[in-house]
Amino acid sequence: MASIGIELCDTGFLTANGESAEPRLVEVADQNGTTEWPGFCYQDGPNLTFGRAAEDMWFVHPRNVVHTFWARLAHEPSLLHSGAKPASFSEIAFLFLSEFTHRLRAATGPIERVVLAVPGAYLKDAQTEEEKIGLLLGLAGELKLPLAGLIDMACAALCDPRSTGFNPALPVAVVDLHLEGADITLLATNDRLERRDFIHLPQCGYAHLLKQLTGTMGNRFLRHTAFDILEDGKVEQMFFRQTRDFLINESFEYRYHINTERRAYEMTAKREQLGSDAHAFVSSLVKGLQSFLHNSAVASEPCTIALTDRAAHLPGLEARLRLTGFNRLMRLLPGAAACGAAYIGANRLKIVAELSEVPLEIAVPLSDTRRASAAPWDVRLQKNRHAGPRIAPTHAILDGIGHAIGSKPRFTIGISSLGADLLLPETFNRADDCSVPLVHEGGRWWFVDTVSARSVNGTEGPTPRTVVEAGDRLTLHCGSAAAEILFAHCATTNGTHVSG
Q: Which of 2, 321, 408, 428 meets the CB 3.0–4.6 Å disulfide criterion with 326?
């Protein structure tokens, strides 16, 4: 039976099956055979249509189409009427999910368990989480989905086994695009991968961008052909579809083609023109990311920027990020959150008796994640075995030079490119992920081994944490390179440091 992960992104629902060794994306065909499932609903009298077929009516009958019901999942009324009263956003979401899961079951057969990767905006605060997650659980119950868990979408995406992996020594900011805005999620590792901060940028959504690009390309088409696409909603819809394909396919150039009863009109557009049209949008997104990381209490430099496949389609985004100083970029594969959710579901989540017991995860064990491999290196903490009281260190000594540890929450030992507090010799630079964190908690310093794999019976266990005390030594090796760091306590008397 299938173990399914569903990525609840309204730019297009994606599904993965985790029953094999590596999750694979599942194509869920709608009534017309199309496998795209954007969060659109079109009303034609008493009939409702969902997904790609509804999106294809957006410019034809704009008043009969809604695409905000997943972003605004709540009991509040929408603009569509169901009988004598307006249909609520949650009602439309239920009907959408009902249609989608019906088609999903036809594609996969019996389903053993389902894990939902939910938008980060659903978890932005306690009140929102209670409302959105409560409604999702209600929808799953009504549809009798064998729900095994819900997981933050960004967190799930970093667990995709198909990925090249991320550097666990650095925080990761996942940038994603939904129809009504962009989500930026900051995650960091200690003994697990955990969501630490989040922001939603409401003006940076796919719906806004595509409308803007359709308009600017339409004006260019008018100047080139003297044909106005706005004369007919069906023509504008055709032009929108071609603009969307141009954006998604990332081709260097694209030939627009519009047929009318009298003649055909064509225009070749360049990717650089699309990039010029999207420049303000991309700038706003990058500025939002910069401001978020600057103001976040838990952000640190350097930081890895992980772009979902949806975000990576934005022309000029990667270049703009590098120009701004974000040099550590990774691109997630299509359906990364769906595959990550399917993988987690297949490997450790079980069906529970009550929906109220379904786990909601914003942190996962490091064994769930896909971490990058680098040049092999090793670190060991050697404890001082002498008897007597032990005290916390104040300094880390490398090659005879003492470095004050201070009292901030984290002190890192590693290579310069990772912004370490204590820099290792340059011979360690070929291990580009070499960073050893010391975490300050409860008045003590702890050595956290986040990189070395610790396997018990073939399964990776919790990341070890060991208290660091004066007299302990940290030894690091990378090929023939070696370094030893001594931890010492220095007391202060009349402004002079003496051994404690």
A: 321
The alpha-carbon radius of gyration of the chain (Å, integer) is 26
Task: Report the candidate in 421, 172, 449 with the shortest Cα–Cα distance to residue 296.
Answer: 172
Angle at 363 between CA 360 and CA 367, to 5 degrees: 115
**Residues linked to residue 284 through DSSP beta bridges, in sequence order:** none
Q: Are the C-beta atoms of 447 and 465 separated by less than 8 Å?
A: yes
Q: Please provide the DSSP assignment of 188-228 as one string.
A: EESSEEEEEEEEEETT--HHHHHHHHHHHHHHHHHHHHS--
Amino acid letter for position 360: L
Whether 334 shows a pLDDT value over 50: the answer reads: yes
Q: Using a pLDDT cut of 90, give the percent of the chain over it.
A: 66
Q: Are 167 and 434 in contact (CB under 8 A)?
A: no
Residue 41 near residue 21 (C-beta atoms within 8 A): no
Sign, Cα dihedral of 366, 367, 370, 372: positive
Calpha distance 318→302 (Å, rounded): 16
pLDDT, tens digit, for every residue of 164-206? Answer: 888 887 899 999 999 999 999 999 987 789 999 999 999 899 9
